[in-house]
Amino acid sequence: MVVATEEMAVYCFDTLVAHYTGEQPPPPAFEDGNHPLFVTWKKGANGSEPRLRGCIGTLEPRQIVSGFKDYALTSALRDRRFPPIQSKELPTLECTVSILTDYEIAEDYLDWEVGKHGLIIDFTDPDYNIRRSATYLPEVAGDEGWTHAETIDSLMRKAGYQGTITESLRKKIKVTRYQSTLYTMHYGEYVAYLKKNRGAAPSISGVPAVNGH
């Protein structure tokens, strides 16, 4: 099984840094393959809990080298929930790469474990008779402190449903659960990696040097 690695997170930072410098990122230091994947950017400052800054990926298998390159930029610059990440924010960023595995159809909306399973929900909006769907990665429910029902209700809102959420509607939802392997790297760790493996930190105008420790 392919697992998320340090090198995958480095490649996402390389890709974002190259976007700001106008250069090509170095080639990735990991093998290609075909897997569903996500790239998540969070921003932390002054020791506060990191806040989501962008998260986009694919639930369908795709080549992971091109996938991480595409979604590193898409999640950083084109997540509609947030303004594009600016280069001056780099020192506050952390990147999480996720590779999704073990897709299973759940028996109902309660048939999954908080912290272990990510969720894909599919349901028919009773007000407009249209299909709606949304996903949360495995870490989301635990990070938010949500129960099973709170997670499902939040996913329904994420999917665009604005009507009343009832128990009978929850029971009609098709839930697919999945697991993931992930790796999280802070910008300071990225800089330390570059110094150790390439002998130099990235040089970006307007971005202060960051100590790796």
TrEMBL record:
| PANTHER family (UniProt xref) | AMME SYNDROME CANDIDATE GENE 1 PROTEIN, AMMECR1 HOMOLOG
Matching Gene3D superfamilies? Hypothetical protein ph0010, domain 1
What protein name is recorded for this chain? AMMECR1 domain-containing protein
Which residue range or ranges hold the AMMECR1 domain? Answer: 1-194
| Membrane-spanning ranges | none
InterPro entries in the cross-refs? AMMECR1 (IPR023473), AMMECR1_dom_sf (IPR036071), AMMECR1_domain (IPR002733), AMMECR1_N (IPR027485)
Q: Which PROSITE patterns match?
A: AMMECR1
| Pfam families according to UniProt | AMMECR1 (PF01871)
